[in-house]
Amino acid sequence: MSKIGFWLQRIAQLLIVLLLVTFGVSLLLRLIPVDLATILLPVGTEEERDILRNELGFDKGPIGYYLQWLGNFVQGDFGKIYFSGGTEEVSDHLKNAMPRSLLLMVYTQVLALAIAIPLGVLSAYRAGRRADKIISNTLFALSSIPNFAIALLLVIFIGVKFAWLPTLGYAPISDGVWEHFKHMIMPVISLSLGLIATYTRLLRADMIAALREDYVTMAASKGLSDRRILWRHVFRPSSMTLLTSAALSMGGLIGGAIVIESIFATYGVGFEVFAAIAGRQYVALQSTVAVIALFYVFFNLVVDISSGFVDPRTRDRRVNA
Amino acid sequence: MSSLLSIKQMSINFDTPRGSLEAVRGVDIEIPAGMSVGVVGESGSGKTVMCRAAMGLLQGSNVKRSGTVVFDGHELTAMSKEEVRNLFGSGMAMIFQDPMTALNPVRRIGSQLSEGLRVRLGMSKADALARSKELLELVRIPNAAAVLKSFPYQLSGGMRQRVMIAIAIACNPKLLFADEPTTALDVTVQAQILQLLRELREDLKMSMVLVTHDLGVVAGNTDYVAVMYAGEVVEYAPTTKLFADMRMPYTEALLESIPKIDHKSGTRLSMIAGRLPDPTDRGAGCSFAPRCKYAQEKCHKEHPELKQDPDGHQYRCWFPIGEAK
Ligand SMILES: Nc1ncnc2c1ncn2[C@@H]1O[C@H](COP(=O)(O)OP(=O)(O)OP(=O)(O)O)[C@@H](O)[C@H]1O
Ligand code: SF4
Ligand SMILES: [Mg+2]
Q: Phi first, then psi: what are they for B3, rounded to 5°?
């Protein structure tokens, strides 16, 4: 019972966060000292603009406008993008962009974790020795290169000079798995290098702390191998920070890979944000940011749930709290 | 009498930012097969370090060790880590000082207890769990089936210590190191745990090293006592002999400092005036000299060697009790 109560409370908290974020964005847009209708319909007549004002709720106060937007948003109407020739649905854009961003995010995370976890465990086990120093220094060097620079280097060498991989565009899985991955490899590598460095560092620090714990010596006194101790006894209690950081970067990768998506013309959600800002499509911007916020909150919830499995202490602490 | 464990000239130094810390200095200890030996001393005297070093459990690049440890015919100090590991569980096992920190917080009691059985004795998962339940019953844990499924934080300190004992005796060790098994517990639980250890020792024919800072604990539970001070063994004798005919001024001070009425948990042996000497800077003379009421000129200048009475009673003092001063 108290468990259900806890989760209801947690979900309510997250909903409130969502409402505050979207309202904040909405308010910011209304505070821009320009006439939004003029921006969206620069060549229309005043009459057409009046219709638009009425349709989007620009004629109402900030709260009225927000409520109208929210009402539409929860029904799946994310608004329109206005062109000189007509309009396009924001939801169509997102339907196109979302799978790209999600896949890019998932591949990036899988690659980053698949490399960072063994490196973190190894460098904690050999802390202060050669392997650790090599790993730490290499990752430090790599993480100090911005990801767009890595992307450009990859494009120049792998894409142009050796022409191994296509430098632009996106291919859905339906075009063939290999074709799909050929387009994903370079963006994924550019995005994951920085994460690998961060994840390795976090895991290494937590594991080194855990290795000093009595329960590790206790496990050794049972006659377990070092490998078993590292993976079964030290890794799990040390992975909370890593888990939290990974969840946060998941949200970040969905909307925040703007530069990489532009370099490789992957056109995911980050690019939609960029395009909305550049084209002053404020309604589209508001809805897209709201969708990104939704993902942030969702991944937060995932961490909450999984942390109970990773560290059972958090489960009861919460219920008792 | 044959020795099960024989420690010769063990010294353990830690490299610290303040210089080399001498935690254990030239310790010789013999654990006769089937016997229980108490190791007594104040907090910081090197008891835990000595036990862990005996089992080869001190890790870290800052540890310098010397001396030899022979267990049951194996010279541990000349063996590889993997070879020594094979002696754990069925040869040697350890109960740790603090039951709050020595169990893995994220794993169920059942998996922590059955793990040794599976890895060391090659039992199947089901067999190991069934045996784990028996072990929990052996250490008198009520409702063993439920405890197997719980996490350490759901158990009281006394329960955790029982679980630790169960883990330690799981593979029927010949020698059990019990590092202050009762210090973190309150008095009534202390007595129960000591009682349990006594019975287990008899039933399983284990030898035991019982570490404590409480001479009172040593009295009913050990055959021999080694008193440690500042990393050295300063007195070694059969327990009855020690209490009947104490030679070392430090042991006497330790006995006098046992809190009599106010015997609450957590009462520490800071009752002897003064403190342990700085372990990174051992002086030239007797380590106890600054606090010793019998100290004389010579004590501050020359380090006393371990002397032995004809009956085997050893002590490290220029002016032992019971001799003309
Ligand atoms: N890993 C380590 N690195 C540096 N110094 C250490 C380390 N472990 C122990 N020491 C030092 O070694 C000395 C002996 O410590 P030890 O834990 O053996 O004392 P103890 O007799 O077990 O005391 P207590 O009754 O508090 O358990 C102390 O000065 C301690 O600070
Ligand atoms: S040698 Fe001297 S100072 Fe040391 S214990 Fe004996 S009498 Fe005391
Ligand atoms: Mg200790």
A: -90, 135
